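--- STAGE predict ---
source: upstream dedup step, 1 unique chain passed
mode: sequence only
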Amino acid sequence: MTDIAAAAAVPQISPAADARLMLAAAARWRWWEFAVWIAALAAIVVFPRNLLLLNEIAILALFALSLDLILGFAGIVSLGHAAFFGVGAYAAGLLGKFGYGDPFLGLAAAAAVAAVLGFATSFLLLRGSDLTRLMVTLGIALMLLELANREAWLTGGADGLQGVTIGPVLGLFDFDLSGRTAYLYSLGVLFVLFLLARRIIHSPFGLSLRAVKQNPLRARAIGISVAVRLVAIYTLSAAFAGVAGALSAQTTQYVSLEVFDFIRSADVMLVLVLGGVGYLYGGIFGALIFKLMQDYLSAITPQYWQFWIGLVLVILVLAGRERIGAQLTRLFAPLLRWRRA
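--- STAGE serialize ---
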């Protein structure tokens, strides 16, 4: 009786409180996360001659982050994510061309236009299989590509949108040829939106997204509004991609039809395959690996660099990410033991 009474006296944790504790533990920053962002900031000093490349990596990382929000956490596959990147790029570029070159105004406009497009097209994805979603998203990007090509009076057509003028960041820092301001600006925007994405993923909304991805029927049965969550995350993902497009337009002060190209959507998918799907740093690490490989291999074999990236992807898929990670852990185990000693 004493044991039973003692057990009854122990306060029981409700499932809701247990879920909050789990989310709080998952949202806690790890030491290596601080190291990632410190290294990204220190790169401006360590690699002063590669700032333009670093800027491209930051923009691609944000673009990959936007795709990971729907692919990794909601299970929505897309082969036309460049549609949102493109409308964001043209929104910021047109503002700059017509005299409204404030960088943050361009970011806000790009996010708004891309979010509206994402919201309007999200309802097309609520029905059908993954193959249907692939075709729908690809079709939207191709239609926007043809529309931008036809309306050359506004977009510049095949010649691209020229005459884009972007003002100083915060009215103080001009975009220079070395890429210093561009990299710091893109890195800052990436960090802010990463914090927002991290907060969303480690929230009850993010937890419900995982439930929807794993089993939509069971999620609907326990009262989760599947359609509302898919529309919401798709709209947010579109806004993130639009901001990435705006960063590209502002830092290069030029927009071409290639922003809608299928290759851009395929590249960002490859980035997530390289870095890993379903955790926010996958897009960042994947963008770093992809851009460095592209830069190095294109310098060695300008015509065949894509072959080597394809070979790496084949090896990664056949060998398995977990198996490669286990082998690397085994390889560096003596070094780790030596450091602990």
